[in-house]
Design brief:
CATH topology: Metallo-beta-lactamase, Chain A
Distance between the termini: 9 Å
Order of helices and strands: EEEEHEHEEEEEEEHEHH
Oligomer: single chain
Shape: globular
Largest sheet: 7 strands, mixed
Strand content: 25-35%
Length: 232
Amino acid sequence: MPMKGRDASTYREVDRWSEGVGWIAYPDEMMQRTSHAVIGDDGNLWVIDPVDAPGVDELLATFGSANTEIAGVVVGLDRHTRDAAALASRHDVPIYVPTWMSGVADEIDNSVERFRDELGDSGYEAFEILNRGLPPWQEVGLFHRENGTLIIPEAVGTVSYFCAPGERLGIHPMLRPFPPRQALSRFEPKRILVGHGTGIMSNAARSLAAAVDNSRSNLPSAYSRAFKQLIS
């Protein structure tokens, strides 16, 4: 199984609910890079960390109401530019990047909008998960208080190489020794959408608390599992 897929011919839909949908562009890749589109309070669609694939535009066009438009494309992690530029160009919308995220805007040949505490008129609050230079990691989380949706691009995931046996949600392997506890413990979400794997659509707050609380104690089994997968 390759880490990243190439030449996508299809995608797998995941995480569909009344106000959002997700997809995995390369269903057979190990990384399981997940993209999302959510409807904001403005009635428009916000696309987050997209990986492009044939049929994605049709998926976005059929989601929401007849008046739903794409408001923008969001980069949630400094190394998650993915296919944001391609999708934003096709739909003639800006790419949204946090004000404190450095370097990313210079790499994007598109119109860029900066945001800090809230993502446009979407109703999603924006907060720093990590913002450090060594090792480099800048990640923004998004949370909608009314519908309880928490979006975490990288710090947690549901793919097997993030999770120790028995975990529904796991801390990123690089962060397990010192997870961003304060940032991840701020909210009690109803659902969690992640950048790698399918989302947690039930008992989300409990799963997040368990992932943070057990990050270090489950570290040996999580690393062992990830290592076996890498060499298999």
